[in-house]
Every structure is written in structure tokens, then in C-alpha cells.
């Protein structure tokens, strides 16, 4: 067995060397043939291509198909990367869009605050809503303005659209606004155009109830609600909302203010009520002639 193998090696090695040498000579010859710039060499190259290429076209088909598959795969990979990049860009644009919408709404509210026409006698202080301390039983918000800004209890608070509530607690730098939807909120209002008076009572819902309405059948959905100014609680003619019919059949008010999305509030400085120190200005003076029958004469005189 060892001799047989050694004999095979004796014949195999020279054959391999011969084949490698012939292959190298053939390749060098092909390179020289393709490098020679000669009409005769060109004719030889054309004849060689005409004879070889058609006969090996079937063998080149898998190579061509593989090359096209690789190109298609690279194209799909580029399309997938572009798709992912577009998705990421769309997500970033969604974030920018939300920010732009919020800025637009904030700008609109600020413009509304600047364009609201109030009585010239009323001045105001604008504050930013810090927190919303709403609960199932209480509706209020906290502002970043307080006693240092001259804020006092009972003053009315509005957003750019309508009345929101009143100040119900003042700190040095903050104040709390009791919203109209709070269960403890009660304010006198006027129903327009009928001019009827009513009480707007909060019940922790988005649409407070109209109580103590005289002849409720005369009030229709869509009637405008403004503050009446009775009792000096609020200045008169502040926009509150409009009348709607609740599911329970009661008259309710759809508030003009966006209670659920408060960012800026305008606190109206109300005039302080004049204190009455004496009754001199209430009772007429007795300098003129006394009206009525004269007193009976004195019997002793």
C-alpha cells in the first residue's frame, strides 16, 4: 500500500505542475492577446468570443442571476434604511407638530387676553397656572401671583374666553382660584336677552347648574349667561357661557372658559366697597320744612 501511494505521488506531482504551468501560460497568453492592439489580434479576440461566450452562456446565467439578486438585496436594504429614517423623521415632526400646536394655542390665549375689552375702571394682573388641584369634590387651580402682587380674596379670574372663578386663598407669592365648577361655588348671573336673574351653582361637573330661575320655561338653550354684579361678588357683564339642557332636564351652563386646559388667568382688581362709618349720608337733613301734620299742642301751655 505504501509503495502504491508513493508511485501515485511520483506521477501526480509532475502532472499537477504541468497543469499549473499550462494554466499560467494560457492566462498569460490571454492577457497578452487582450492587451495587443493589432487588427489581427482583434479578429482573433472576436472569433474567440463568438465561439466561447454562446457555449458558456448557460453557465453564466446563475452568476448573472446571483449578481442581480445581490443588487436587488442592496436596493431593498437601502429602501429599508430610508424607510426607517423617514419613520424617525416623522416621529420627530410629530413632536414638533405637537409643540407648534401648543405654542399656537398658547399664543391664541395670550392674544385673547390682550384683546378682551373690559370696563376702563377694571385693572387686572395676569398669572400662570402652576398646578391643578382638582378632585372629585373640589375644583381649583393655583396661580403664581399672590399678596405681593396685590391679589385679594374674592377677585374674579378669567381666561381669554370667559369667567373662570374667584380667588379663594392668597399667599405671599401664590393664590388659589376656586373654579365655577366647584361644589362650593355660587355666583349671581343674568340670562340674556331676557334679563332674568339666577344663581350659577357648581356641582363638580363641566356644566354648572342654573338655580332659582324665575319662569324656567322662558329660558332657552343658547341664551347667553353673564355675571350680574349683584352683591358685589363679581363685576357685571363678564361672559360666563350659554344655557344648555342637561340630560336630567335641568338648566345648565356650558362655560365659555376652557376649564380643563387653563394656562393663563387674568385676575380682575375689583373696587373695594366703601365702608359706611355714619348714617349722616343715609338720612335726610331736617333743615327744610317738616312734612306731615303738625304735632299736637302742649296741654300744659
Number of strands: 12
What is the CATH-assigned architecture of the domain at 123-269?
A: Beta Barrel
Shape verdict: rod-shaped
Which strand order do you get reading across the main beta sheet? 1-2-5-4-3-12
Strand content: 15-25%
> Which ranges are low-confidence, i.e. pLDDT below 50, for 5 or more consecutive residues?
none
What is CATH's topology name of the domain at 123-269? Answer: Thrombin, subunit H
Straight-line distance between termini = 178 Å
Class derived from helix and strand content: alpha+beta
Describe this protein's structure:
The protein is an alpha+beta fold and 301 residues long. It has a domain at 123-269: Rod shape-determining protein MreC, domain 1 (Thrombin, subunit H). The protein is 37% helix and 23% strand. The chain contains two helices and twelve strands; from the N terminus they run ααββββββββββββ. It starts with a helix and ends in a 32-residue tail after the last strand. 19% of the residues are buried. The mean pLDDT is 77.
Provide a quick synopsis of the model.
By secondary structure, this protein is α+β, with helices and mostly antiparallel strands. The chain has helices at 2-35, 39-115, and strands spanning 123-132, 140-143, 156-158, 163-170, 175-179, 186-192, 196-201, 209-211, 224-227, 239-245, 251-255, 264-269.
Amino acid at each position: 500500500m505504501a509503495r502504491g501511494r508513493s508511485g501515485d505521488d511520483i506521477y501526480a506531482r509532475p502532472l499537477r505542475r504541468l497543469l499549473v504551468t499550462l494554466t499560467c501560460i494560457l492566462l498569460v497568453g490571454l492577457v497578452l492577446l487582450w492587451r495587443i492592439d493589432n487588427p489581427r489580434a482583434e479578429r482573433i479576440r472576436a472569433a474567440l468570443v463568438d465561439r466561447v461566450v454562446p457555449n458558456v452562456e448557460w453557465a453564466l446565467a446563475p452568476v448573472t442571476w446571483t449578481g442581480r439578486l445581490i443588487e436587488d438585496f442592496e436596493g431593498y436594504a437601502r429602501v429599508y434604511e430610508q424607510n426607517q429614517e423617514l419613520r424617525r423623521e416623522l416621529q420627530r415632526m410629530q413632536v414638533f407638530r405637537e409643540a407648534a400646536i401648543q405654542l399656537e394655542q398658547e399664543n391664541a390665549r395670550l392674544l385673547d387676553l390682550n384683546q378682551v375689552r373690559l370696563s376702563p375702571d377694571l385693572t387686572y394682573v395676569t398669572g400662570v397656572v402652576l398646578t391643578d388641584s382638582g378632585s372629585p369634590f373640589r375644583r381649583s387651580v393655583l396661580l403664581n401671583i399672590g399678596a405681593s402682587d396685590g391679589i385679594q380674596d374674592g377677585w374674579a379670574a378669567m381666561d381669554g374666553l370667559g369667567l373662570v372663578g374667584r380667588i379663594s386663598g392668597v399667599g405671599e407669592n401664590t393664590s388659589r382660584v376656586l373654579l365655577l365648577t366647584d361644589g362650593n361655588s355660587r355666583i349671581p348671573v343674568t340670562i340674556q336677552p331676557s334679563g332674568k336673574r339666577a344663581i350659577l351653582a357648581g356641582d363638580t361637573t363641566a356644566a354648572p347648574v342654573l338655580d332659582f330661575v324665575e319662569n324656567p320655561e322662558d329660558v332657552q338653550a343658547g341664551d347667553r349667561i353673564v355675571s350680574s354684579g349683584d352683591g358685589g361678588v363679581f363685576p357685571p357683564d363678564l361672559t360666563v357661557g350659554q344655557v344648555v339642557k342637561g340630560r336630567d332636564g335641568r338648566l345648565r351652563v356650558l362655560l365659555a372658559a376652557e376649564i380643563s386646559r387653563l394656562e393663563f388667568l387674568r385676575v380682575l382688581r375689583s373696587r373695594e366697597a366703601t365702608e359706611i362709618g355714619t348714617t349722616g349720608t343715609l338720612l335726610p337733613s331736617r333743615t327744610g320744612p317738616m312734612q306731615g301734620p303738625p304735632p299736637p299742642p302742649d296741654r300744659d301751655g
